[in-house]
């Protein structure tokens, strides 16, 4: 681990970011060039003290998940992300479908940062939620908290009954077909040894419903749109789901909206008051 290079690189990347780049207000008395340390720490999901020690050449060696979080928080490109891993003493993530697909490009992160008043999230091609706005966490629950195969909504859909509480029961069959088709598409893109193959093998062993749908070999099942989502306090919301695809990383930005002035639009406006929805409700 090269503490001097790591500290210098973090400082320069932080100072190169402006508050507007990450959806933060500049404020009238800002004197710091670029972002403040506490802002960079918040974007990376860590304490200000931990992040500050890294910039001061006295922090511990960051773990790979911590470095991945810093790379997202500082809106690093893939080349910059790889450099960050190397100077922190780790191998560059290069395994197909592993940490590389978790990295959100700076452009997509900038768009997400401007959607704080809208339910929006970035999802990998195996249905793992990589980042959410606070409004998305209020609508859908914090879906970034899962680890292992449970990170994938497709896996949770077929193995955890609570995952289905998000949707009305009559919509479940089409969702099941859509999730299975999406996993097959990811598997065909990534090839043998990928994360999609691992999830497929687990689900074939653990879910008869998935095994039956997989054997049907359906391709390009249309997604459910508009989406009907169940909320424990607001009831069923019928929302449009706009999709922006990042082909470089095979990730999608999902943005949930309702017609202005509609009953569902009024329900969305209540989400900030209700706060993060408990997962599995």
Describe this structure in words.
It is a single chain. This protein is α+β, with helices and mostly antiparallel strands and 281 residues long. The chain has two domains: 3-94, Orthogonal Bundle (434 Repressor (Amino-terminal Domain)), CATH 1.10.260; 106-274, Beta-Lactamase (2-Layer Sandwich). It has helices at residues 3-16, 37-44, 48-55, 64-73, 78-87, 99-102, 106-113, 134-140, 153-159, 172-190, 195-206, 208-216, 263-274, and strands at residues 120-123, 129-132, 227-231, 235-246, 251-257. Strands 2-1-5-4-3 form a five-stranded antiparallel β-sheet. It is globular, with a radius of gyration of 20 Å.
Key descriptive features of the protein:
five-stranded antiparallel beta sheet, Lambda_DNA-bd_dom_sf, globular, 281 residues, single chain, 13 helices, 434 Repressor (Amino-terminal Domain), Cro/C1-type_HTH, DNA binding, Beta-Lactamase, Helix-turn-helix domain-containing protein, MLTR_LBD, alpha+beta
Q: Work out the radius of gyration.
A: 20 Å
What integer is the average pLDDT? 88
Give the number of DSSP strands. Answer: 5
Summarize the main sheet.
5 strands, antiparallel
- Give the neighbour order of strands across the main sheet: 2-1-5-4-3
Structural class: alpha+beta
User: What fraction of the residues are assigned to beta strands by DSSP?
Assistant: 5-15%
**Helical amount:** 40-55%
**SSE pattern, N- to C-terminal:** HHHHHHHEEHHHHHEEEH
Termini separation (Å)? 43 Å
- The CATH architecture term of the largest domain is 2-Layer Sandwich
Shape: globular
InterPro entries: Cro/C1-type_HTH (IPR001387), Lambda_DNA-bd_dom_sf (IPR010982), MLTR_LBD (IPR041413)
Organism: Streptomyces odorifer
GO molecular function: DNA binding
Protein name: Helix-turn-helix domain-containing protein
């Amino acid at each position: 681990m090269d503490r001097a290079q790591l500290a210098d690189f973090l400082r320069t990347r932080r100072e190169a970011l402006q508050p507007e780049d990450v959806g933060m207000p500049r404020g009238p008395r800002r004197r710091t060039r670029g972002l403040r340390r506490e802002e960079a720490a918040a974007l990376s999901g860590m304490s200000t003290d931990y992040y500050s020690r890294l910039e001061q050449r006295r922090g511990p060696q960051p773990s790979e998940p911590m470095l991945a979080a810093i790379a997202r928080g500082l809106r690093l490109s893939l080349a910059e992300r790889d450099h960050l891993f190397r100077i922190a003493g780790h191998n560059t993530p290069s395994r197909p479908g592993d940490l590389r697909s978790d990295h959100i490009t700076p452009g997509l992160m900038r768009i997400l940062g401007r959607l704080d008043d809208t339910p929006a999230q970035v999802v990998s091609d195996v249905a793992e939620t990589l980042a959410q706005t606070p409004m998305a966490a209020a609508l859908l629950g914090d879906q970034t908290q899962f680890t292992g195969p449970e990170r994938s909504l497709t896996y949770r859909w077929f193995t955890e009954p609570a995952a289905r509480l998000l949707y009305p029961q009559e919509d479940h069959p089409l969702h099941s077909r859509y999730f299975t088709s999406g996993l097959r598409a990811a598997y065909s893109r990534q090839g043998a040894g990928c994360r999609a193959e691992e999830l497929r093998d687990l689900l074939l062993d653990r879910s008869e419903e998935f095994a039956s749908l997989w054997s049907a070999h359906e391709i390009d099942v249309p997604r459910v749109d508009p989406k009907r989502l169940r909320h424990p306090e607001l009831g069923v919301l019928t929302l449009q789901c706009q999709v922006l695809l990042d082909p470089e990383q095979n990730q999608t930005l999902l943005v949930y909206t309702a017609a202005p002035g509609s009953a569902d639009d009024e329900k969305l406006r209540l989400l900030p008051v209700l706060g993060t929805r408990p997962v599995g409700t």
